[in-house]
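In the previous chapter we treated chains in isolation. Here, by contrast, the input contains two separate entities that must be folded as one system, with a combined length of 737 residues.
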Amino acid sequence: MLQMSVNSGSGAPPSGAVARTLAQLPEGEAGVLDRLDLPEDIARRLMELGFLPGHIIVPARSAPGGEPRVYRVDGSEVALRRETASRLILKPAKDVL
Amino acid sequence: MSDCHDCAGCVVAEAPASLRNGARSHVVAIIGPPNSGKSTLFNRLTGLRQKVANFPGVTVEQRVGKAKMQHHHADVTLVDLPGVYSLNPRSEDEQVTRDVLAGAMPGVPKPDALLLILDCTNLGRHLVLAAPILSLKLPTLVILNMADDLKSRGGHVDTAELATELGSPVALISASKGQGIEKVFQFMQGTSAGTTSLTPPRVELPVLQDIPRCRQWAHDVGSGAAYRAPAPPVWTRRLDSVFLHPVAGPLIFLMVVAGVFQTIFTGAKPLMDGLQNLILQLGHGIQHVLPPSIFRSLLVDGILSGVGAVIVFLPQILLLFLFIGILEDSGYLARAALIADRTMAKFGLQGKSFIPLISAYACAVPAIMATRTIENKRDRLATILIAPFMTCSARLPVYTLIIAAFISDRPLLGHFFGMQAGALLGLYVLGFVAAILTARLLKSSILKSERVPFVLEMPPYRWPTLRSLSLRLIDRSKVFLRRAGTVILLVIVVLWVLENLPVKNGQPPQIADSFAGMIGHAVEPVIKPLGFNWKIGIGLISSIAAREVIVGTLGTIYGKEGTEDSLGLRKALQSDLTPGGAIALLVFFAFAMQCMSTIAVVRRETGGWKWPAIQFAYMTLLAYVCALITNQVVRSGIFS
């Protein structure tokens, strides 16, 4: 937990596996956040809102047109645009179980 | 909240400043994350004894008030700090909060005690802020707000246990219902009398820079206090399934917007007319009572008409803020912002800019005040800078007068939509296009966002309370009347002086010989290429007070009745202005920032003269160039 897994800039996932992002998670399905692929200050801002590695995130309703979408995370609901959600990398499904 | 003055090991709080220095009152700061009910608590504690300003040099709003203490001796000043999640100084809000808490904010005394307000329906996340606050070692009351929600949704927390863990007293309250508020007063009573002691927390505070660890710490503290999170808000989920429904959602949104628009426009009209009438009657009354003199003229034509020009907008502003208050307090504003976001993003703005921009069709002043709901400073600034392009109601009298005088009402699309209506619609479109192009320009140049992501918290739906709505209305009208009012009044009085001096043989001069006339003649060479003569020049200068003032001024200059439906004034303009000049005048008014109160409010909201100066220069230049092109094109006869 000490490592915050904050990557700045480089978008490539560390392992060879194709990581799923929060933007790809269907509505109502739970995902576990692995890391935030965003510059550190933005990542910290999102972490303060509950988007912390290890936390469960559930996509809820979206605005017409599919974005921004509301996410249920850490006891509250926060809306993000797709460009932001696609930088939040989820843990592979098998790791969750 | 023990009275252990003498007990060993207790660090007795610093002796209250009021004992050392009679002039300084006990200062208590309220701090909490956004949506924790901070402002509601502040309003509860202060009532109307508050004032709103900006922290020096920044756009962050500063609210200071006197607490309504039951005990007469206590003099407690409350400072409402901006909503923050942490004290890491990344945003202006966080920097301000840090500076105030450290006593480094000029003009704001270092707080003697703190009220930390947290939403107890989401204690796990909100407790994170307790770590940096408690490490300040100031007497702190931890307030768990929304106690009613916690209870009704089956949550629980052991406040006594939490108080022991944190080493600070804990109060479970409902700020909106007023439950438990007495505990907050008791705490302030204790700190101001110097009887509150600091106890070290039982739990160790985490390393503040490490957010995951802070969050883990908050979780552990919560578990230690037997915290059970409440069930999800059922009604909020149900309402969201309607308000964010793919089809019903946008329809409801459009209905809400249309309702707001309709009300601030037509609903306020009778009230505005009534006020205008009242002021007119008052003027007539004074004219009957007082003998004709320079003083009477100053009183009626100067001061009274100046005051009138201001308060005539008050009904619109009150209605608008009533709407915004209901939308914001109920939680719908966040949903509206969500729905509008995609469209606004195309112009480089965001969802929360939508309502302020719509409001600007009534008046830019409340619109600019309404941008406070936009947390992102750059988006807020962009919205403030483009709002005056929206066709506000003060432009309408000018548009009506010029269009009626210069555009023949030939049918354009059948009998219902003629050339005149088309011209008016065209001017609305012109303002809107200028606004969105300016927004794009700003966001790709000086306001280029450092990729701050759009983040919007969705608060649960709540009933707006009458108390909070009325406090907001009183606060906003005070701001409007003070800021806009004093400026407009000043400008109107100055204009009156310019139009009535120098006195010749004890009589006010003809307008052409007055100081105003001289200024008009002086600016004529500059505005001649636009097709304007010196009379229009005087009108333009007078319209800086408020746009519609030009109609009255032109009436005075041409010696005709100064209203927009005055036939005499139309005829006079027709014979004195070329069609090119007339259309150029419309274009000029569509773009120019001819409004002192807007300038004053932008200065207030942006905390300095820099932005209003840039905005005024940009809009005036744009207006000049476009009016110049219009006049030259019309004159060259391309369209005839």
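Chain B has 28 helices and twelve strands. Residues 1-23 of chain B have pLDDT under 50 and may be disordered. Compare these points with the single-chain example from earlier in the chapter.
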